[in-house]
Amino acid sequence: MVSIQRIIMLNNQVLSGLMGVCVGDALGVPVEFTSRVERTASPVTSMQGYGTWDQPPGTWSDDSSLTFCLAESLCNGFSLDAIAKSFWQWYHESYWTARGEVFDVGNTTFMAIVNWKQGGSPVDAGGKTENSNGNGSLMRILPMAYLYRELEFSELIKRVHQVSCITHAHPRSQMACGIYISIAVALLKGADKHAAYLKGIENVKDIYSTSECNLEMQHFERVFNGAINKLPIEKISSNGYVIDTLEASLWCFLNSSSYAEAVLKAVNLGFDTDTTAGVTGGLASIYYGFDNIPNDWVELIARKDDIIDARKSIS
């Protein structure tokens, strides 16, 4: 029997992760595509609005929408078709959008959704070329971490890869998602943030070094050397390339001491601000907890109550 304390803890972990992604995303939306020079001159310090997408403060993007779609789908068991269907509903019916409007979608994600709707298998829908390695699956993958309680680790990573494939099927994108989830699982189990980083990369390294992903290991050298946090900021890129996003999010998380510091650091790297901050925020919120997310930011989040309700189902 699951204790009341266990239920409360799981609820809090899920709420922290979902809200952590969403708040980071919303912080980055108004300044998406702005340069690092611009952000250095005028750093983001609070929840803003309008800007790039002309949206009110607290508006989140496709990053959070697809995260919520995945989380909700998992409540009814693991079904790739159900997940893909929810992505279709998001794009065509504005399902799980912040304000009833889809205003930001990557081309790789869009084409994959179309491929699935035309009859393709979910695992064959996503882009498989090297040019298909945007961060569109990494940005939404966090809910998979909560399955660690139910699955053997190798099976969890296999399913993480399958979920990535719905939109991004190249091994590099699958591996980025696997690394991220492995670190998130270590955090969920209570590891210190740097210990979780080291444990996370070690656990998946054993899988990737003996699989078809081995040829991709060279692209993750800076992550797997265990010292991504020691790189100077000038060596950290924050564009839409999946490895850039993974590296930047780990760098921001490991080089901060609070949720707010981590996500603001991510936003102020510039360029793909919403995704970098959302991916960073997922890890930071699991580690620091929901109460460490500034309340004035949470209060501005669109559909805040719906997000709080959603965590109850997945726990």
Integer tally of domains: 1
Major sheet details:
none
Query: Which second-level CATH architecture applies?
Result: Orthogonal Bundle
- The poorly predicted ranges are 1-5
Q: Overall pLDDT, averaged?
A: 93
In short:
By secondary structure, the chain is mainly α.
What do these coordinates show?
The protein is mainly α and 315 residues long. The protein has one domain: ADP-ribosylglycohydrolase fold, CATH 1.10.4080. The chain is 57% helix and 0% strand. The chain has helices at 4-28, 36-41, 62-74, 80-93, 107-117, 122-125, 153-165, 171-188, 193-208, 221-224, 242-254, 259-267, 273-288, 295-300, 304-314. The chain is globular. The chain starts with a helix and ends with a helix. The model is unreliable at 1-5 (pLDDT under 50). GO terms for molecular function: hydrolase activity; metal ion binding. Keywords: Hydrolase, Magnesium, Metal-binding. InterPro entries: ADP-ribosylglycohydrolase, Ribosyl_crysJ1, Ribosyl_crysJ1_sf. This is ADP-ribosylglycohydrolase.
Task: Describe this protein with a few key phrases.
0% strand, globular
